[in-house]
Design brief:
single chain; alpha/beta; D-Maltodextrin-Binding Protein, domain 2; 3 domains; 9-stranded mixed β-sheet; two-stranded antiparallel sheet; 11 helices; 11 strands; 45% helix; DNA-binding; LysR_HTH_N; transcription cis-regulatory region binding; DNA-binding transcriptional LysR family regulator
Length: 290
Amino acid sequence: MDLVGGCRAFVSVSEVGSFTGGSAAAGIPQPVASRRIAALERHLGERLFDRSARRARLTPFGRDMLPRARRLVRLADALEQDAKRARLRPLRLAVPATCPTRALAELDAEARSHELFLEFRPAAPAERLDFAHTHDVRAALTAVPADEAVWTVPLGVASAVDLDRAAVHLDSLRAGRTGRAPRRRVWIQPEDDVPHVRDRLLRVRDAVGLRPTQVVVAESLSAGVADVLGSADLLLCSRAQADEFALHWRPIAELPLARGYDVTAEAGPDADRLRTALWRGIARCLGADA
């Protein structure tokens, strides 16, 4: 039987003093209140009300049970309130610092339609993973190899000067024999300072004969963009980022590179909702392939 529903009807009728008024106060039809109280009496094995009286008068057993029934109703109400607060508790999500503010706001708005309230914590790849492991966040978009990823973001290089070829050949960055021309560099932003991206690019650097200083990790994204804007250097980035910075973007001829992302979460249902219900919104934030 519905023990809480029966106790709620019992408490309401006893406080008002009539089945009609008590059921109205409880927000249920009078026949429903009567059935619930009758079921509660059968469950407890004794009458709660003296039905021979004109008003709903408690029996001695009913008077004994009333304080306990009130306590059960209060506990049930508190449980419902706690559940509501828990549903509204923001899900702290560690995201790449490269995610645009507008895209994050759109993702937050979309999440609310799924009764999910997001609170973002932008961070570098290693920090996001640490946050997830130390439970500083409930979930994190973590960097993984592209072949293991839920979301992938193709990478190329971008320049402030026009790139006339369909793809950039890194061997074309080798200094000429005269050595007079400045050596062009490829800047790796912190978001791509992960082994499955950085190390592959460094291996190509060595294979085509570039100097170690020609492929380097920038101190920050803004520092890397500043170096590119003031020279003929290149920034390793996504096409969406190149558009954001008004740079010319091309893929790298020697190898396909891509960021990969998955969800690390303390609770499986959180990860599932992010991967499914919010897949498209997260893809927009990351600049990922649709």
